[in-house]
Amino acid sequence: MSRPEYPVAHPDTGVARQVLAENSDLMVVSFRFDTGACGALHSHPHTQSTYVAKGRFRFFRGDETLELNVGDSIVIPSGVTHGCECLEVGELIDNFTPRRDDFL
């Protein structure tokens, strides 16, 4: 679903990001991935939760490597380096607290 008030961004090859809802305390974001696309390793001061709405992913969180499937979720604490690789075309629904102003 496209929400005209929040444009689609393409932060990495094969990745589409769209804010779904936000206020100063919380942001909900959809990330759609092509198979083989990666979310580059990074960290930020926001606490993040990720829910796998579609597909299969390999996540890197600190020193951990985890495989997540539809219905799985993960929490990434503030400041922890993380990223992912899409193993099967998919969608992640991420929540950030506080809001990621850099996504607006």
UniProtKB/TrEMBL annotation:
Gene3D superfamilies per UniProt: Jelly Rolls
CDD domains, sorted: cupin_KdgF
SUPFAM superfamilies: RmlC-like cupins
Alphabetical list of InterPro entries matching this protein: Bacilysin_H2HPP_isomerase (IPR052535), Cupin_2 (IPR013096), KdgF (IPR025499), RmlC-like_jellyroll (IPR014710), RmlC_Cupin_sf (IPR011051)
Occurrences of domain Cupin type-2 (ranges): 31-86
Alphabetical list of Pfam families matching this protein: Cupin_2
Protein name, UniProt field: Cupin domain-containing protein
Organism in which the protein naturally occurs: Paracoccus litorisediminis
Lineage: Bacteria, Pseudomonadati, Pseudomonadota, Alphaproteobacteria, Rhodobacterales
